[in-house]
Amino acid sequence: MQKILLIHPDITILDRLKKELEKRILNVAVLTAQTLFESNQALRHNQKNISIAIVDIDLQDSSPGKAVMLTSTHNIPTIVISSAQDKSLQELLRKKNVLDYIDKDSKNSISSTVDLVAQTLRNYNKTILVVDDSKLFRNTFQEDLKKLHINVITACDGAEAFDIVDSLEGENISIVLTDYNMPNMDGIELTMKLREKYQKDRLSIIAISATDDEEALTKFIKAGANDFLSKPYKFTELKVRIGANLDLLELFQKATDLANKDFLTGAYNRRYFFEASKAIIDKNYRKNASIAVATIDIDKFKNINDTYGHDIGDIALKESLVVLNKRLRQSDLLSRFGGEEFCILLEDISLEDTKDLFEDMREKFENNEISIDGIIIKYTVSIGVAYKKSFDIDEMLKISDNALYEAKNTGRNKVIIHTA
Ligand SMILES: [Mg+2]
Description:
It contains 15 helices and 17 strands. It starts with a strand and ends with a strand. The structure holds magnesium ion.
C-alpha cells in the first residue's frame, strides 16, 4: 500500500484533502500532520514507505518552508502548497525533491492537488529510454526523471536505442526521448525504425531538438514522433510533456482494454479470443505444429451463487483467473467465454506438456481455498481439451466442448483430452 504524507496547519483542509485523496486513489493510506513536530513523528515511523508528501509551507511551530526541507532531505517527492507570491517559494522549488507547487489562493486548489498527486503516483515506475550522444544531457535527463520516480534507461545513439527496444520487444518502455544529431543512427531514423514496429498508442516518442531547428521538428513529426521538447529545457516543461504523454498512453490502453477485456475478471473476451486466435492458429499450421484448445468450466458454480450470493460468486470467479494464470505462459491466450467458462489456446506445445499443464491446473483449483469475510470457498473445475494440428478454431472448440461434456458426465474435477 502506498502512503501519502499530508502536512497542513488547517484541520478542515487536512480532513477534506485526506478524504478526497482516499476516494480518488486506490490502496492508499494518508498520514496527516498539522505541525512540524507531528511531521517529524510521522516521518520517524514511516519514512521509507512514503511515496509522496504534500506540504503547506506555513506551519505555526516553524519558519516558512521548514517542513518542505524536512521531506526533501528524507528524499520524499514533495508537492508544495503556497501562495504564489510567497518569496520563499522560488527557492524551495529548486530543492531536489520538490515536484511542483499548488497555489493555495486558487479556487480549486484541493482538486488540483488531488489531480497532481494521482498523476504523479500513476507515473511512478514507468520506464523511459533517453537517447542522446551528449553524456551531460543524458545525465541531466536521468536526474530530472528520477525526481519523478521514473525508471531511466540510456543509449548514446539511435542504433543502441533500437537494439534496446528490440531486445525488450518494446515491453515496459513507455516513452523514447530522443536527440536529433547522433553518430551511427540519428533521432529521425530511429523514430522511423521504431514506428515500423510500434504504433503511437503503444510507444510515445518525444523528439529533442534546438528550438530554432524547425526543419528537424517537421521531419520528426513526419517520421512519427508524438511530441517534442526543445533544448535547453526547463524541468517543468519536461514534467508536463512526460505527464501528458504517459496519460495518453494510459487512455489508449484503457480504450483497448474496454473493447477486448471482460469487465469482471479482466480476462480477454470471446470476441478478442476469436480475433487473436486466427494469427496464432495460422502460424502454427504453417509450422506444422500442434495446438491445444481447452474449455474450462467451474463445477457446480450455481451452488456458490445460490448459497452465498452473486457478490461472493463474482469474487470466486475473479480468483479463478489467479489460479489459471499460475500455469499459463505469456503467449497463451486466455479468455472468459461467458458465465463460469474459460477458453485457452496454447501454441507449439507437446501432448505430454499439455497433459501435465492441465492436470496440474485442475489440481491447483482442487487445493485452492478462497477466504471471503470468514467464509471458505472451494471449487473444482472440469477441463476438456482438443489437441491436434488444425487451422480451424471452430472445429477445435467443438472438440474441446465434447471433451468437457465427457469430463462433466463422468464425475467432474477431471481433464479429458481428445486428440482427433
Ligand atoms: Mg546530439
